[in-house]
Design a protein that fits this description.
Elements: H1 3-17, H2 22-38, H3 40-56, H4 61-67, H5 71-86, E1 94-99, E2 105-112, E3 115-120, H6 124-136, E4 140-144, H7 150-166, E5 174-176, H8 183-189, E6 197-201, H9 204-213, E7 226-230, H10 236-248, E8 257-263, H11 264-279, E9 284-287, E10 301-303, E11 317-323, H12 326-336, E12 341-345, H13 349-358, E13 363-366, E14 386-387, E15 395-396, E16 403-410
Parallel strand pairs: 3-4, 3-6, 4-5, 7-8, 7-12, 8-11, 9-10, 9-11, 12-13
Antiparallel strand pairs: 1-2, 2-16, 14-15
Helix pairs in contact: 2-5, 2-7, 3-7, 5-6, 6-7, 10-11
Length: 417
């Protein structure tokens, strides 16, 4: 099937999905969860082939972690679909209703976006997360995973399409580009007649390519150079725990911590503790010249290079810098953050308020780990992406972010004078 034909089928499926009831969509999600569990042996076998090939090709540890499925992860993906089935359906929601002086009743009504193209790398869980959220919101989706996920995605899409068949929804509502040729990406980006939005999930190169070549609106995000600032009034014990969680809990994801900024007033006490504590967990450090005087010679600490504070580590590496003030911390974040997740650790309410007001990131934290930037953690169910731009959607994109609205105007033979 050509990409144009896929677009045509997706557009037709989107019109059919627009008529689906909430009960029908929820039934499809439950059926999908059941199919994932029933087919988990073949899904894991397919994924093992992808992982083996990726290892032979020298894929990075971070990418291998994202690629790998196991029994627990498949069960978690299935559980996410059951959870999405319990969430309120935003489609059809009526809001901002008003009656004009002439008697016209006007309101906004939430509707699906239509057809979404998602381009992603090394993340088979995205295949199911996106499919589930798209189904719940009445959107058709065209999925184009990376070449390293072909076997996994074939098995997962087979489960998705069987669930659609079993529940009477159009199988073309979820289509998969089963071709690793990058030319298919370029063709997808040109389907503006059929596709309403493109969401890339991957590295900076993929995002740049989509922005450069797409004739369709693109929502970018998911690249996180994340910061936590330890203010002079911070609870240092709590700060140590928060930074440890943000860096170590799962270092290969976009909301993991990349840089710790520490106020000079607490640096002498805090930095040696931080290096000792995180070093025991396998973390190594790239220290700015401002931080080096507070650290004794330690093989785990090296001098930060010119690009280190602009690097998303996706590994057990942490940048360290000492700053003189809240203003300097915010200036560093403005210069180096990707606008994903940044936070302050403080007991000074005024500092927290300034940080929240002035740091322009999709998620801004006060005394909490950046690891919470996630659709499920924010109560959205699974997410289709984390947007770091300002228009339409920002942060984790859940159900509501996959809808738009139309104006509905109800009259009684009204004509405009």
């Amino acid at each position: 099937m050509s990409m144009k034909e896929m677009g045509q089928h997706a557009r037709l499926a989107a019109r059919q999905l627009a008529r689906a009831t909430t009960d029908q969509k929820n039934a499809a999600l439950i059926a999908l969860a059941d199919q994932l569990m029933a087919r988990r042996t073949e899904i894991l076998a397919a994924n093992a082939r992808d992982v083996s090939a990726a290892q032979a090709d020298g894929l990075s540890p971070a990418m291998l972690d994202r690629l790998t499925l196991n029994e627990s992860r498949v069960a978690g993906i299935a559980a996410d679909q059951r959870n999405v089935a319990t969430l309120p359906d935003p489609v059809g929601e009526v809001f901002e209703a008003a009656t004009m002086p002439n008697g016209l009743a006007i309101h906004k009504q939430r509707v699906p976006l239509g057809v979404i193209g998602v381009i992603y790398e090394a993340r088979p869980n995205v295949t199911v997360d996106v499919a589930g959220l798209a189904l719940k919101t009445g959107n058709a989706v065209i999925l184009r995973g990376g070449s390293e996920t072909l076997n996994s995605n074939r098995a997962l899409v087979a489960a998705i399409q069987q669930a659609l068949t079993d529940t009477g929804l159009p199988v073309e509502a979820v289509q998969f580009v089963d071709d690793a040729d990058r030319a298919r990406v370029t063709e997808l980006l040109a389907l503006d007649e059929y596709v309403d939005m493109i969401i890339p999930r991957g590295g900076a190169g993929l995002h740049h390519y989509c922005r450069e070549h797409s004739r369709i609106p693109v929502i970018t995000g998911g690249i996180g150079i994340c910061h936590l600032f330890v203010d002079e009034s911070a609870d240092l014990e709590a700060a140590l725990n928060v930074i440890t969680n943000a860096k170590v809990q799962r270092p290969t994801v976009c909301n993991a911590l990349d840089t710790a900024l520490v106020h000079r007033a607490v640096a002498a006490e805090f930095l040696p503790r931080l290096v000792t504590h995180l070093g025991a967990a396998g973390v190594t450090f790239r220290a700015d010249v401002s931080a080096q005087p507070f650290l004794s010679a330690d093989p785990r600490v090296s001098s930060a290079g010119p690009d280190d504070f602009d690097t998303e580590w996706l590994s057990l590496i942490l940048g360290i810098k000492v700053v003189e003030s809240l203003d300097e911390a915010m200036a560093h974040i403005e210069a180096h953050s990707t606008g994903h997740s940044d936070g302050i650790l403080t007991r000074t309410d005024a500092h927290a308020a300034r940080f929240v007001a002035e740091v322009d990131s999709a998620a801004v934290y006060v005394n909490a780990s950046t690891r919470f930037t996630d659709g499920a953690q924010f109560g959205l169910g699974a997410e289709v992406a984390i947007s770091t731009q300002r228009l339409h959607a920002r942060g984790p994109m859940g159900l509501r972010e996959l809808t738009t609205y139309k104006w509905v105007v109800i009259g009684a033979g009204h004509v405009r004078p």
